[in-house]
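for the writeup, i need someone to sanity check this before i put it in the appendix. the sequnce is what the collaborator sent (i think, or maybe the updated version? ugh). structure was predicted straight from it, no edits. if anything looks off just tell me and ill rerun, i have time this weekend
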Amino acid sequence: MSARSKARKRALDMLYVAEVRELPIADVLATETVRHLDQPERASSWDYARQIVTGVDDDRSAIDKVIVEHAQGWSIARMPVLDRCILRMGVWELRYNPEVPDAVAIAEAVELAQSLSTDDSASFVNGVLGAVAGGRAPSAKAATAPSDGAADDDATPSGRTVAGDQESR
């Protein structure tokens, strides 16, 4: 599993805890920071996890608005907590992190939904994030990014490797 995949899972854990326990994100981040310092083997996922969580928290109102606009008949409150957190992360990556190709952001969110949520969650997450991405080709962002031409097991569908998406080997 890549460092960014681990970071996404870690960020999801933090967002979920904050939502379920009705805690401020700052409190959850403070707890996770202490945990991070006690577990240096998890360092590769910490920075991006923190970036996702703070990004989602900073832009939550705009992110929720985007989700509702594309969720066709679903309010934020009606969505399962886990799906809501996954969608917030996915929208943040699509709208606020140009380093992550759309296809990667969507695929990672769908994978989290498949492995952690209900039977219908993966298709719901895929549909909403696909609509948010605007039905573009797998990644309009990746098409404009420089490519080193090298094939890699952790490469995106465009054939390029996204910086930070590989676990250090």
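The helical segments are 3-21, 25-38, 43-58, 60-70, 81-96, 102-116, 121-132, 140-144. The chain has a mean pLDDT of 82.
thx in advance!!
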